[in-house]
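The records we work with from here on pair a chain with its fold. These numbers are not coordinates but entries in a learned vocabulary of local backbone shapes. To see the layout at work, look at the sequence and tokens printed below:
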Amino acid sequence: MRYILVVIGLLWPMLINAQAWEDQQLFKGENPVQTLRVLSSTDTGFFSPIIQSFLAANPDWNVEYLVTGTADISAILQQSPQSYDVVISSAMDLQVKLVNDGFALKLPSISHPDWAQWRQSLFAFTSEPATIVVNRSAFRGKSIPANRQELIRALREAPEVFDGKLGTYDVRSSGVGYLFATQDARASETFWRLMEVMGGLKLRLYCCSGDMIDHVASGELLVAYNVLGSYAAARQLQDDRFEIILPSDFPTTMMRTGFVSKETKHPVAAERFVRHLVDGRYFATGLNTSSLPQLGLYPEGRNPTVIPLEPALMTYLDKLKRRTFIQEWSNAVIQ
């Protein structure tokens, strides 16, 4: 047994490096001495300006940026917490649980509103709405639905148009998709009626907002539900084939959060990186937000539609509650 443990110990670095990342890039400083490793669920193209501005102010560092799904981040960090310095995700519930389980370093020197931080360890740096994205051509000559009830009506009136042309997150494998779905279900029974109607029209399931946006723009989908508004707004700057809807009945807005791994090898630089996120509010930069709420944090207080950072977020992470919710969701959408 001792020899097996020795072999595992020798192979472990190779197993960590063998992780199948969605993306992995090294951003180089001007005169780098060491490298900060950032584990994140945010697309590299969306996040690279933040990294570049950090390196401009910290030229003696490189940043290795590792992208994976929101549901995978917890397992990856738990397996090797010393391998990562900063952890960033849009799945607020999973982030709160990681902090609650002792994986985050407390940073009392960072001043942040109570509603935008948790235990002086987890810090929000954006607020981003869940939106409905629709293909413009599908609604030519018709009213574009403004809320979930109107979307249900549109789907029921023309099922032959929307059959096989609807998309949303697969909540069984997407952390942020599960967060949005559970919050929607808490807010109104309308969510379940919408899921049943969409499920009856061969609803297609996705891992990521980017894929849904691509398919709505191309016409492969006509409607995508619970798409990250920040991604949609950024894409709309170059592509106007789709419309972004903020549901008027009950909007859902998540906060993207980051923390420093408790076992980071570079605590000072990692804290500096998180402080850079908190001070920057970069997601509001360069986006066409005329039809969207502010994508940075709200400086005058918490937007009432924002999901709060609080222990209640972990309610649906309970194994029994999660299993029950996913079963009910599966019964509705997989018909």
User: Anything to note?
Assistant: The CA atoms of residues 159 and 201 lie 7 Å apart. The chain is about 40% helix and 20% strand. The domain at 128-252+317-333 is CATH 3.40.190.10 (D-Maltodextrin-Binding Protein; domain 2).
